[in-house]
Here is the input.
Amino acid sequence: WAAYDTPALFVLLYSVSIALDGVDGWLARWLGQTSRFGAWLDVVVDNLGRGMLWSLLFEWGFLVCALEWCVFVCNHSTRGEQWKESFSSSPPLIQAIMANGFWTPLGVWVVGGLHCLPLWLYSYQWGLLSHWLDVPLWIQAAGTLLLAAGRLLALSAEVWCIWSHIEYLTNDEMEEKKN
Here is the structure.
């Protein structure tokens, strides 16, 4: 985060962190080194990084951060480290997003929107796309729309996770009152 004001270095370091996030889980599974703590820590590190970037990009960026933390609490408190595999009773869109641990075209689009949209917007704000990379304006707009659509799909899954957690909590209370 010390490199935030040095766009070329920041984009490089943040991109490396996104890439490592994609590799670390795969490597842990391949080596048989998975754990509940590792699954928890992976999401915590993701949320911290994205949350800090959203908060630096926009005054309202904390809302994206708050939503992601709320979903984290909902998913990990009821589903634990197997949260990615626990969506069999969810609506078809949510199942499609979550299928195969996000390793489907739709899942990759959603994760791309989740992880890459804030970096894309940072690059846009700092003029990296137009001045440094000489990306045409129409490609910048198309990239923004594509990533924003992926992030909106992520939002639909996040809202469903929160809603299903609220239902879970209130169903337990109703059953306790019956007993």
The CA atoms of residues 30 and 124 lie 37 Å apart. DSSP finds seven helices and no strands in the chain.
